[in-house]
Structure formats: structure tokens, C-alpha cells
Specification:
The chain has about 240 residues and is of the alpha+beta class. Helices cover about 35% and strands about 20% of the residues. It is elongated, with a radius of gyration of 20 Å.
Length: about 240
């Protein structure tokens, strides 16, 4: 199966151990460091250019990727790029997605083993392609070329922005279904002593420290004293 740094193979089950690159040597950090963070709020879209960095950022933030497969030798792809970078409505993209731009007009990109593997996995047909994927890399939905049978630029612009907006709800639904599967493998909501939740699986206990695997495969540790009272009692009951 395809295993590329930052874009793991799609899976219906739990994330592979340490997909975020964490190990037993991961520095101890506060429980709150595992919480989902907000997105960018700038007027222009801040496209990431590194697939591995974008995927890692998506896992940390718990938000989907918006992947723009482009080719600057394509007039249609160039038109979409200009439209997304200028439309006022596009300012919200960074609030809901980690945007990743891949330009296959670049020889360096085309010859990269990483991006060749990404191309082989998602198989975009023609350019441009907008693809929404969960932080684990599993595809949610895509739009290729012109939207449907639309051929006028204003209508294409409208439908493209509608696609990006509607894909937020589709991603949330896909994430919820994935969580239900993970619950069968020991994942649940844990809460720290300030009331902040995180969805994770308890893996190991070492004295007063607990090691967890988060929703998207990231490993993190915390002192059990930083957990809520209910969670501390649950751990004590599990390990009398």
C-alpha cells in the first residue's frame, strides 16, 4: 500500500502508530498541546507548498486539507488560481482547511518521489483539481476542471466557492464516522483539569505519566494529574 511521509494510506480503522513522527522520545508537553487549533484568517489564501508539512499541520489542527492540483501551463488552472487568490469569499478557506498547492508544471515537483506518490494515490485527471482530504489523507470529495456543465467564469467562480464551503460539512461528517470506528478500538474523549477535551486512546501508563495516541495518529504524553478527576478515577479503576 502507498505510504508517503505526510500522506498515509487511506484506512477505515485506527491511525498507524506514530504517523505524526512521534516516538517514545517525544518531549513531554502539556495536555492542551494536543487540542485542535484555529486556521488562518488572512484575506489571501496562504497556500502551503510542502505536502508533508501541510499534512502534519492538518493533523495537529484537526482540520482537512484542501489540495489544489494545478499546472501553470493550463489556462484553466491559472484562472482558478487567480480567482481563489482574489475572491473575498476565499478568505474563509484558511479558517476551515490547510490549503496545499501542487504545481505539476514544475519539473522538480513532477520528478519528486513524494509528489509522484501523491499523484498515483489521488489520480487527478487534468487540471485544475480541488480535492478535500481528512488529516489522515483519505479523500472526502473533489472538483475537477469546470464545475459540472458550467462554462462561464462567474458561474464557475460561484460554484467553486460553493464546493469549498459545502465540503466543510462533508468533512465533518466523514470525521464523525471515522470517530465511531475508532471508538471500537478504545478511543474516547479525554478531558484535562481545565475542561478541555481531546479524542484519543490511552496506550501506556508509566508512574504518573500517561501516553496517548490522538485521533490522527499523533503520540503525546501528559501527567495524570493534569487530567480531569473523572479520567483520573477511570485510570485508577483500570489499574488498581
Amino acid at each position: 500500500s502507498l505510504q508517503v511521509q505526510g500522506i498515509p494510506p487511506a484506512s477505515s480503522g485506527a491511525p498507524a502508530a506514530n504517523t505524526g513522527g512521534a516516538s517514545s522520545a517525544t518531549p513531554l508537553f502539556d495536555f492542551s498541546s494536543a487540542f485542535s487549533g484555529g486556521g488562518m484568517t488572512s484575506r489571501a489564501v496562504t497556500w502551503r507548498r510542502s505536502g508533508s508539512d501541510a499534512a502534519a499541520e492538518a493533523r495537529r489542527a484537526g482540520v482537512p486539507l484542501l489540495i489544489f492540483f494545478s499546472n501553470r501551463s493550463s489556462p484553466t488552472a491559472t484562472m482558478l488560481e487567480v480567482m481563489l487568490n482574489s475572491a473575498p469569499e476565499a478568505a474563509t478557506i484558511g479558517q476551515h482547511y490547510i490549503p496545499l498547492y501542487i504545481d505539476f508544471a514544475s519539473k522538480e515537483t513532477r520528478e519528486s518521489l513524494y509528489y509522484r506518490a501523491v499523484l498515483d494515490r489521488y489520480k487527478p485527471r487534468g487540471y485544475p483539481v480541488l480535492l478535500v482530504a481528512l488529516p489522515d489523507g483519505s479523500e472526502v470529495v473533489r472538483q475537477s476542471g469546470y464545475a459540472g456543465e458550467t462554462r462561464t467564469e462567474p458561474e464557475w467562480r460561484k460554484r467553486t466557492l460553493q464546493f469549498i464551503s459545502s465540503a466543510v460539512a462533508q468533512s465533518e461528517k466523514a470525521s464523525a464516522l471515522r470517530r465511531k470506528r475508532l471508538e471500537q478500538e478504545g478511543y474516547r474523549i479525554w478531558t484535562n483539569n481545565q475542561g478541555k477535551p481531546v479524542f484519543a486512546r490511552l496506550d501506556t501508563l508509566d508512574a504518573n505519566q500517561a501516553t496517548f495516541t490522538g485521533e490522527w495518529g499523533e503520540s503525546f504524553r501528559t501527567f495524570t494529574s493534569r487530567l480531569s478527576e473523572a479520567d483520573r478515577l477511570a485510570i485508577e479503576a483500570r489499574n488498581p
